[in-house]
Amino acid sequence: MSPSPTPSPTPSPKLVFINLPVADLDRAIAFYERIGARKNPQFSDHTAACMVVSDVIHVMVLTHPKFKDFTPRAIADAHQVSEVLICLSAASRAEVDATVAAAVSAGGKADPSRMPEFDMMYGRSFEDPDGHIWEIMWMDPAMSACPEQAASA
Q1: Which residue among 5, 95, 108, 147 is least enclosed by CB atoms within 10 Å?
Q2: Does 135 lie in the same domain as 96?
Q3: What is the dihedral of CA 120, 139, 114, 59, to 10 degrees?
């Protein structure tokens, strides 16, 4: 008789660390705190700060010299070129609008990119002081699949 397989442990959720170069570390910390992130001092110093967005999402804001320690590539000027679009979910349309309002209040710019609007989705965007674009998206929880997937099913 062969031994029964040992059940594998439930995997921990993966953490996401978004690394962003910033021109002014103190300004970046203040901006992200004003939109709801909290600074984790354990992973922060005078060259970088870990801004906790959720249990699994962290934004590492790094001075340009610190960021250059991790890549040989030039740092993009996010005010001039698109480097990445980061999208976070929201629990409601109101939360989308409140997040964008908080970003503007903290020194960001509202709606630098057009977001399509559908009955089952609502999104807006903001630009942080360093030009990084963040999208905030609400999706109707009653929707079990994207329209394209539902049509092909």
Answers
A1: 5
A2: yes
A3: 180
Query: What CATH number has the domain bearing residue 30?
Result: 3.10.180.10
**DSSP letters spanning 34-100:** HTT-EEEGGG--SSEEEEE-SSSEEEEEEEHHHHHTS-SSPPP-TTTS---EEEEEESSHHHHHHHH
User: Mean pLDDT throughout 14-23?
Assistant: 96
Can you tell me the mean pLDDT for 10-39? 95
Cβ atoms < 10 Å from Cβ of 103:
25
116 token code pair? 């399509």
Overall domain count for the chain? 2
Structure confidence by residue, pLDDT tens digits, 82-122:
888 899 999 999 999 999 999 999 999 999 987 777 888 99
